[in-house]
TrEMBL record:
Domain (Histidine kinase/HSP90-like ATPase): residue spans on this chain: 25-165
Full protein name: Chaperone protein HtpG
Homology family: Belongs to the heat shock protein 90 family.
Sites where the protein binds ATP: E32, N36, D77, M82, T169, R339
SUPFAM superfamilies cross-referenced by the UniProt entry: ATPase domain of HSP90 chaperone/DNA topoisomerase II/histidine kinase, HSP90 C-terminal domain, Ribosomal protein S5 domain 2-like
Organism this protein belongs to: Lacibacter luteus
Keywords (A to Z) from UniProt: ATP-binding, Chaperone, Cytoplasm, Nucleotide-binding, Stress response
Signal peptide range: none
A Pfam short name: HSP90
Residue ranges that the Swiss-Prot or TrEMBL entry lists as coiled coil: none
PANTHER family for this protein: HEAT SHOCK PROTEIN 90 FAMILY MEMBER
């Protein structure tokens, strides 16, 4: 048998896709060819189960081998094989795929879709690295004869009698001079580990040495010997292919260690398993984050029929869940996936919503079943939940029942519980409920203590996204305001109808303000005379809540107006307590003493905010040493 001809290529068929595919990372070719070999093996297994192949299938296996001397890389399988006519149909006429025909022929098989290959499409990726490709194949069909196909990367091919004596296919790549890295065993091994680690058919790459028991010695101790065994690089039955009822906690933990060998153990996990209206399986783990927002991303691996596709799953997984770890597998997502496909595909959008719902259901279940355990995990869970509440409206609707607010005493409350806790003390004269918070309880210790003395509660908001979360809560909660505990004097943060009054005349206020403005001598510090309790600090320095919040958002990358405010110079309010005892001293002192007392009170306020530095701090210390 001998035949020569021209591969059927035209602008309407698959060749434009192949050309686009050539721009991909060249290592993808191995994934495609090994996947094809797996498909061929699974097809044979399915045919046998349907009674269309009566012989023994034997152990189905894919073998990858390198011959550096011959400059060849070979991918072999003992699957379905091809006849010469099938080569002409599925390889030469690149536009065709055997998927439709195979489904029609074996449509009585409910899950035949699982074993549909993409042989014609992926096969030509071989020419990214090979100057010539050879196929040696023998079909499973009775009476079939072996066939050989060769092509040098042009549209010309040759089919002759083949030399294969057993059912299956060898794809032999003659590696070109620019791609000789793919003749290195270490390089091939790393690619197989990346893409083929969980394929459903055993993939062998060479051999390895193993130590096995070899009887006992004279002292009764077990002896061992080294034996050579096949190096099977994949786990053909990863846990996401099994039913949750078959698995124990240790199985999930073992799999996590396999995926992330140097990570701490996860907090818990979710097993995904749905077959309508789309197919999706997988396991998602909640890792310990430690408020680490960026480093943790891109840890979810996307598979299609156990073939690794990518760990860039932004469009498939809701953005706030990119912090999760684990795997998801969907045959509804093609191997040669692109961002434009993901953004447009309806199944991808359904998968996105499904994952978000499953995570919400899992968190709700944990909260209801074991609130104490849930609270103990909150420092890690909180980042997920807050991020989700901000970015996903449907998730927020569920999350508000298990979203916790933590105060500086490390007590946890749901939003509803917290409202009930603080409404009697922290409702202002206009009926607004005021949530006080701090991002750093140590830094704001004096402000927190002052609030506690007035029976106010202070929340701890110190996660990387709390600036945005605070803004989101204000939009969601009716007549509720969020104010950082150092954003103003307490009586201004929560204004009451019976606010403190002072007895200073207008002239005294004007004089007092002028004294402090002279002592401070800084246009960025705006002096205001306030009526505060006599026991409060004589001077308090604050930055307006709204302005400070805009600046913090700007630091996190906010553009537009937030970027504008981020570039503005810092401005502060200096609240002088008109009811403090030093005020009468200042008003009755001579000009030099007035300035000295005002400067000392101002420096104390700077010190309380951690803003007294450099020469001013040195001068402050020296003044206090002199007094001692």
């Amino acid at each position: 048998m001998q035949e020569k001809g021209t591969i059927s290529i035209n602008t309407e068929n698959i060749f434009p896709i192949i050309k686009k595919f050539l721009y991909s990372d060249h290592e993808i070719f191995l994934r495609e060819l090994v996947s094809n070999a797996v498909d061929a093996s699974q097809k044979l297994k399915r045919l046998a189960s349907l009674g269309h192949y009566g012989k023994e299938t034997g152990e189905l296996k894919v073998n990858v081998s390198v011959d550096a001397a011959a400059k060849t890389l070979t991918i072999s399988d003992n699957g379905i094989g091809m006849t010469a006519d099938e080569i002409k149909k599925y390889i030469n006429q690149v536009a065709f795929s055997d998927a439709t025909e195979f489904m029609e022929k074996f449509k009585e098989a409910k899950d035949a879709n699982e074993i549909i290959g993409r042989f014609g499409l992926g096969f030509y990726s071989a020419f990214m690295v090979a100057e010539k490709v050879e196929i040696q194949t023998l079909s499973y069909q009775d009476g079939a004869t072996p066939a050989k196909w060769t092509c040098d990367g042009s549209t010309e091919f040759e089919i002759t009698d083949g030399s294969r004596t057993e059912r299956g296919t060898d794809i032999i790549l003659y590696i070109n001079s620019e791609s000789e890295e793919f003749l290195e065993e270490q390089r091939i091994g790393s690619i197989l580990d990346k893409y083929a680690k969980f394929l459903p058919v055993a993939v062998q790459f060479g051999t390895k040495e193993e130590s096995v028991e070899d009887g006992v010695d004279e002292e009764g101790k077990t002896k061992y010997k080294s034996v050579t065994v096949d190096n099977i690089i994949n786990n053909t039955n990863p846990i996401w292919t099994k039913a949750p009822s078959e698995l124990k906690d240790e199985d999930y933990l073992d799999f996590y260690r396999e995926l992330y060998p140097f990570s701490e153990e996860p907090l818990f996990w979710i097993h995904l398993n749905v077959d309508y209206p789309f197919n999706l399986t997988g396991v998602l783990y909640f890792p310990k984050l430690k408020n680490d927002f960026e480093v943790q991303k891109n840890k979810i691996k996307l598979f299609s029929r156990q073939v690794f596709i990518t760990d860039e799953v932004k469009d498939i997984v809701p953005e706030f869940l990119l912090l999760l770890h684990g795997v998801i597998d969907s045959p509804d997502i093609p191997l040669n996936v692109s961002r434009s496909f993901l953004q447009a595909d309806s199944n991808v959008k359904k998968i996105n919503s499904y994952i978000s719902r499953k995570v919400a259901d899992k968190l709700s279940e944990l909260f209801k079943k074991d609130r104490k355990g849930y609270e103990e995990k909150w420092s890690d869970i909180g980042l997920f939940v807050k991020y989700g509440a901000i970015s996903d409206e449907k998730f927020y609707d569920k999350a508000k029942d298990f979203l916790l607010l933590t105060n500086t005493s490390n007590e946890h409350y749901t939003i509803e519980e917290y409202n009930a806790k603080v409404k009697d003390f922290q409702t202002d004269k206009d009926g607004n409920l005021v949530y006080l918070y701090t991002a750093d309880a140590e830094h704001h210790h004096s402000f927190v203590q002052a609030a506690t003395k007035k029976n106010y509660d202070v929340l701890l908001m110190n996660s990387p996204i709390d600036t945005h979360f605070i803004q989101h809560l204000e939009m969601k909660l009716d007549k509720t305001r969020m104010k950082r505990v150092d954003a103003d004097v307490l009586d201004k943060l929560i204004e009451k109808a019976d606010a403190e009054k002072h007895q200073l005349t207008d002239d005294e206020q004007t004089k007092l303000k002028a004294v402090f403005e002279k002592a401070i001598n800084n246009a960025a510090m705006k002096v205001e005379i306030e009526s505060l309790p006599a026991e409060a600090m004589p001077v308090t320095i604050t930055m307006e809540e709204w302005m400070r919040r805009m600046k913090e958002m700007s630091k996190m990358g906010g553009g537009g107006m937030m970027g504008f405010y981020g570039n503005m110079p810092d401005n502060y309010k200096v609240a002088v307590n008109a009811n403090h005892k030093i005020i009468s001293k200042i008003l009755s002192a001579d000009e030099a003493q007035q300035t000295a007392i005002a400067k000392q009170a101002f420096d104390l306020a700077l010190l309380a905010q951690g803003m007294l530095k450099g020469a001013d701090l040195t001068a402050f210390v020296e003044r206090n040493v002199e007094v001692i």
